[in-house]
UniProtKB/TrEMBL annotation:
<protein>
    <submittedName>
        <fullName>GNAT family N-acetyltransferase</fullName>
    </submittedName>
</protein>
<dbReference type="Pfam" id="PF00583">
    <property type="entry name" value="Acetyltransf_1"/>
</dbReference>
<dbReference type="InterPro" id="IPR000182">
    <property type="entry name" value="GNAT_dom"/>
</dbReference>
<feature type="domain" description="N-acetyltransferase">
    <location>
        <begin position="8"/>
        <end position="189"/>
    </location>
</feature>
<dbReference type="InterPro" id="IPR016181">
    <property type="entry name" value="Acyl_CoA_acyltransferase"/>
</dbReference>
């Protein structure tokens, strides 16, 4: 779309089938700028991905419609915009992002990209628009989370969102754990304690693709992530995770050559999987590790299973990615039980993310 602003083009970016396809140049360029934007915000490269790692996660699926644009300014790529439309029945939600290189801020480009996104979300009948933004540490005024837990600096992104009708709903803590001898010694101790408390459960683990025997149990826990993780006033659709959805999830890691280790606790009497933790790394095994979902099923809380799956997973990780220097994880600032576990392991807060929502009228 050629915008009325001189020099601005919001160029639709179809996701190519492969990074080698002749049409993939825009996608490859988008990934380069994506990495630069995140480096500018955070000051580190922990969020870097290669085109080959990102592509499988963005390809069309039956579960979400994804729209992408490359933001061109004077013929140069300066950022990207995206809108995800979950395809759960009756979904009201649109999840969007506008991410620009710092040199392009403050010229009305973000506003133009956002206005296009809001218009398209309306055309698709979506009435709840949501986004997340990293708000790096800054001196000065802060916005408290309405949950009562955490706050973010009243920075450029916060003002941009507020001025477009968004409300901060939740603060998410980004934490890092150094993977060094001291951490591994602490993990061994914590793991022994958790094992002693978790009588009646055993640890099972796999790297994706998920073995057939665990597909149903893993799918049930992935569905519970949506309903059980603290979401404050953010709106997320309930999801059904059948075998096809687990396979689609696994494909995005396998096709990207990314390793995901799932460490689960199995209730011995019933055979049910009742807790799990995920650790992920891309093709560069000396890069940061990402800790993704962790959950203990409600009926099985209070047996130290959260600590058990985290510690057992991190201890096993040493054989998979011995050169990875640290683990990054994201937790709702009000999620005290999870933060207690992470703090005991040695995770330290690095930065904070805001979860933002607007209800269209
Ligand atoms: C947040 C972000 C998208 C804002 O984009 P931006 O292009 O800097 O925003 P704009 O220039 O359109 O608007 C910012 C302010 O500058 C004003 N502005 C400055 N120069 C302008 C111009 N020439 N024309 C129009 N507006 C201008 C806008 O009116 C706006 O003020 P307002 O909020 O009072 O209306 C951008 O800073 C960014 O990419 N940040 C990092 C990623 C991020 O946090 N994204 C947000 C969530 S996904």
């Amino acid at each position: 779309m050629q915008n009325t602003m001189t020099g601005l083009e919001l160029r639709p970016m179809p996701v190519p089938a492969s990074v080698d396809a002749p049409v993939a140049a825009d996608f490859v360029d988008m990934v380069r700028v994506r990495n630069l934007v995140y480096r500018e915000i955070s000051g580190h490269g922990d969020n870097d991905v290669t085109p080959g790692e990102l592509l499988p996660a963005l390809q069309p699926t039956p579960y979400v419609e994804r729209l992408f644009w490359n933001v061109m300014w004077g013929g140069e790529l300066v950022g990207r915009a995206g809108l995800d439309l979950p395809l759960e029945e009756g979904s009201r939600v649109g999840l969007w992002r506008v991410e620009l290189l710092r040199a392009a801020w403050g010229r009305g480009i973000g506003t133009a990209a956002y206005e296009m996104i809001e218009r398209i979300a309306r055309e698709h009948g979506r009435t709840v628009l949501q986004t997340a933004a990293e708000h790096p540490h800054a001196e000065g005024a802060r916005i408290p989370s309405p949950t009562g837990f955490g706050s973010i600096p009243h920075d450029w992104a916060a003002r941009f969102l507020q001025n477009r009708g968004y409300r901060l709903e939740q603060v998410v803590r980004v934490s890092a754990l150094p993977l060094d001898d001291k951490t591994y010694a602490r993990l061994a101790e914590l793991c022994d304690e958790a094992r002693a408390a978790a009588d009646g459960y055993r640890v099972v683990s796999w790297t994706v693709p998920t073995p057939t025997e665990f597909v149903a149990g893993y799918g049930a826990m992935k569905a519970a992530m949506i309903t059980d993780a603290p979401a404050a006033e953010m709106e997320y659709d309930e999801e059904e995770w059948d075998a096809a959805r687990v396979a689609e999830h696994d494909r995005t890691y396998v096709d990207a050559d990314r390793t995901m280790l799932v460490t689960a606790a199995q209730h011995i009497a019933s055979g049910d999987l009742v807790a799990f933790n995920e650790l992920v790394i891309g093709t560069d095994l000396s890069a940061a590790t990402s800790q993704e979902d962790t959950l203990v099923a409600r009926a099985h809380r209070g047996h130290r299973l959260g600590m058990l799956v985290k510690c057992a997973g991190l201890l096993a990780w040493r054989d998979i990615a011995p050169a990875s220097p640290r683990v990054i994880t994201y937790n709702a600032e009000e999620n005290r039980p999870m933060l207690d576990i992470n703090e005991a392991i040695g995770f330290l807060p690095e930065s904070y993310e805001g979860e933002w929502k607007k209800e269209l009228t």
